């Protein structure tokens, strides 16, 4: 049995990833900071629900205890999917001239610190797996190569906080992969997908966006690690 935790999975890419991995035979813990929405989503899919707010140490510790008890202390796959973009009040992306530490901090707290917090907390369970995997859901906007190339859509993105947070997630991926060679750890770029994260302005479906997440969640012990991938293959850092 393969046991998988997906954060931020009550909707969007996380929800579709949960559906696909359940279909592949995984036991999936659908992580959600909202208990009721998470419970409904888990019931709909046939997943197990666990409350986890990636910005809160106590919430993450409680999720570890739940999964530790349920599984006998083993987690095979962790998908760090929870993330936010733009202003927390829903009023769009902060322009560089308006960016401050206070406007940037919430995105780093969720996208980077949340990924680090959850990964650190679940490492003991992952290291007991015979084939542990971590997938960090990044973005093409985290690629320095893409955002500096005028021929790419990423070049025109106006904000600082979201790209910076995802670039930092990519560095976390690389350094963790070197530190834990027995774990397959990779960043993925799902593509510009229609989700609540971007007000459903994306150009592809959640089914298309989840493809690379699902693929990298199922890599074997001989699969890649310390990499950055989209559905077509490696992404330039």
Order of helices and strands: EHEHEHEHEHHEHEE
Domain count, please report it: 1
Strand order of the biggest β-sheet: 3-2-1-4-5-6-7-8
Q: What is the CATH level 1 assignment?
A: Alpha Beta
What does this molecule look like?
By secondary structure, this protein is of the alpha/beta class. The chain has one domain: NAD(P)-binding Rossmann-like Domain (Rossmann fold). It contains 7 helices and 8 strands; from the N terminus they run E-H-E-H-E-H-E-H-E-H-H-E-H-E-E. The protein has an 8-stranded mixed sheet with strand order 3-2-1-4-5-6-7-8, with helices on both faces. Helix 1 links the parallel strand 1 and strand 2. The longest helix has 26 residues. The protein is globular, with a radius of gyration of 17 Å. The mean pLDDT is 94.
């Amino acid at each position: 049995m393969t046991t998988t935790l997906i954060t931020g999975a009550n909707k969007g890419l996380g929800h579709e990833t949960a559906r696909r991995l359940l279909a592949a035979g995984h036991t999936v813990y659908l992580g959600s900071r909202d208990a009721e929405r998470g419970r409904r989503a888990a019931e709909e899919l046939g997943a197990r629900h666990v409350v986890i707010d990636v910005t809160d140490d106590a919430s993450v510790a409680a999720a570890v205890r739940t999964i530790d008890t349920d599984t006998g202390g083993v987690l095979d796959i962790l998908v760090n999917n929870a993330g936010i973009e733009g202003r927390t009040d829903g009023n769009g992306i902060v322009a560089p001239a308006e960016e401050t530490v206070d406007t940037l901090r919430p995105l780093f707290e969720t996208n980077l610190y949340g990924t680090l917090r959850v990964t650190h907390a679940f490492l003991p369970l992952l290291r007991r797996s015979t084939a542990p995997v971590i997938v960090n859901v990044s973005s093409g906007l985290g690629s320095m190569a893409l955002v500096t190339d005028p021929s790419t859509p990423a070049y025109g993105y106006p904000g600082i906080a979201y790209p910076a947070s995802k670039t930092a997630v990519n560095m976390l991926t690389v350094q963790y992969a070197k530190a834990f060679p027995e774990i397959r750890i990779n960043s993925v770029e799902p593509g510009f997908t229609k989700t609540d994260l971007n007000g459903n302005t994306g150009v592809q479906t959640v089914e298309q966006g989840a493809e690379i997440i699902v693929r990298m969640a199922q890599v074997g012990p001989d699969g890649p690690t310390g990499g950055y991938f989209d559905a077509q293959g490696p992404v330039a850092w």
